[in-house]
Automatic annotation (TrEMBL):
It comes from the Bacteria. One of its GO terms (biological process) is methylation. The keyword Methyltransferase applies. The lineage of its organism: Bacteria, Bacillati, Bacillota, Bacilli, Bacillales. Keywords: Methyltransferase, Transferase. Residues 33-84 form the Methyltransferase type domain. GO terms for molecular function: methyltransferase activity. This is SAM-dependent methyltransferase. Signal peptide: none annotated. Pfam families: Methyltransf_11 (PF08241).
Amino acid sequence: MIDDHSLKLLNVGCGTTFHKAWVNIDINSIHEEIINVDIRKGLPFEESSFDVVYSSHVLEHFSIQDGFSLLNEIYRVLRPNGIVRIVVPDLENITRNYLSSLDRVKEYESKENVFNYEWMHMELYDQTTRSISGGNMANKMLDLTNGFDFMFERIGYEMFNAQERELINKLSSIQMEKSIYIFGAGTFGQRIEKILSKHSLYINGYIDNSTSLIGQLVDNFLVNSLHNISKSAHIIIASTWWREIEAQLKEHDFTNYSIVKTEVEKLSVPDGKLEEVREYIQTQLGMDYLRAFDEGVFRNQGEIHRQMYDQYLLKSILLKTGFVNVSKMNALESTIPNFGEYQLDEINGKVRKPDSLFMEATKK
């Protein structure tokens, strides 16, 4: 085990999960703490540069051959006795849960059993077969009025968008408030209420501008008018009308509020040449060829799963790369010193991606 406290740490394919103590790399990131690197072309670091390399939910997006090349690069940049921690979806766990849900729904078609079966079928196939971003799983996750606990048990914080995760990061400060209200009694507001309750944070009620809702119970919480809420209350805005609601709060001298926006801002890079090609295909070959082209472009952008790993396969490929001491871990254990402080595999003590397989090994 490494004892040095001044470790060189590398987070490969970090996405939105990173820590400033690490060198964080990903492709097309707009965050200042992340270095833009196309890891398909190798790692731009000298041999034996790092004590630890961490990579979560990256390897499955590569073919088995390209994944092996990436692990070889990780091995190269690690120092002798350096630690690698690889996190991937756990194929064994997914298939066992699928078979279990199938047995239950065949025995009794309750609403819960049907939902759980449909989710496990999607979890097994959707991320390898989808042709649009998010696939069928994205639509299922939008409505948290059904199957919330089961989806959270399966995929954890992946079911929340960036704005909702930002709210989760603020929970420790919000917990200090004496009273909490959600402005927005619709589906989105109820979604936020469930997120809060998952962290043992309970609201006093909803606020809504609709006179037909005021005084009614929604999700067992009373819907209030803004006029009968104390100025000291913390208000969480959860509505597509968040701009108008924020202006309304300011007009009534409310200063203690948080906003969970529904818009998802994505980095888009205009590609004039791509559009020229699409236009040519559509005019010369027709819509069927254009749909095939668009699907091909999507499937090569890195979202889909090209390989799935169980404990045996991942251990085998790590050993083949040259690593030793290959061990299965859980989200809360690691041979990396002080790993829990970085909150990479957990948030506030809860596993970030519960469907994962956690493996560590060392460079001999």
